[in-house]
Amino acid sequence: MAPVGVSIRVRDDHVVIDNGFLQLTLSNPEGLITGVRYNGVDNLLEVLNKEGNRGYWDVVWSEPQGSGIFDVIQGTHFEIIHEDENQVEVSFTRNWDPSLQGKLVPLNIDKRFIMLRGCSGFYTYAIYEHREGWPDFDLAETRVAFKLRKDKFCYMAIADNRQRFMPMPDDRMPNRSQKLAYPEAVLLTNPTNPDLKGEVDDKYQYSCDNKDIKVHGWMSLEPPIGFWQITPSDEFRSGGPVKQNLTSHVGPTTLAEN
């Protein structure tokens, strides 16, 4: 049976793209990823989180010699770029002007999402434009982040030889862990899985060289499904092939970071 075509429904506050395998829900006009429905699971993203804290593009930037500013990128305009039964591509844009100096990174940002017929995933990319004469700034990082359901995704894989059952996010709370030298590192003192007692959890343990970040993500045992971050090329990443970037970590969280 041939796969059904791709459809799109535009509502006042959400955009829903569906190809029969996968249904993607995006907030309108912000372009935040609020829902990923697949294989009978209404939402693979963490339903306990607010809609703005499930899937998103973000940026960390600063004015010269300034301190870093974390910004979840929220669009102000929605547009359908392409629509037919084989492919839907949508755009969420946020434009900069001088009245926003010091408040938002001086970039025009266009976040894109694409779904294809017969595909069990979706594509996302962004276009950043810094026009001549706009203020200088430092860009520490930009990324797309997905926060998955902790009641389903328990097994993480970032390479053939780096995969395991992971601690729960609750295991990092003060009643189950001890803070170490910096906030990202904790000693698991009373984890929900006793086998993990005495381990240190630190998201930087799971960093990889840019050249090695190909596929990483999480698996659910019930139902047996995975959520995978696939990197087609590392050319968009700065710092060269041996610079390390984050991948997946306790959350359960998966990132595409530059």
From TrEMBL:
GO terms for MF: carbohydrate binding; catalytic activity
Cited SUPFAM superfamilies: Galactose mutarotase-like
Record's protein name: Rhamnogalacturonan lyase domain-containing protein
GO-annotated biological processes: carbohydrate metabolic process
Stretch list, region Disordered: 238-258
Polar residues: bias regions: 244-258
InterPro entries tied to this protein: Gal_mutarotase_sf_dom, GH-type_carb-bd, Polysacch_Lyase_4, Rhamnogal_lyase
Species whose genome carries this gene: Musa balbisiana
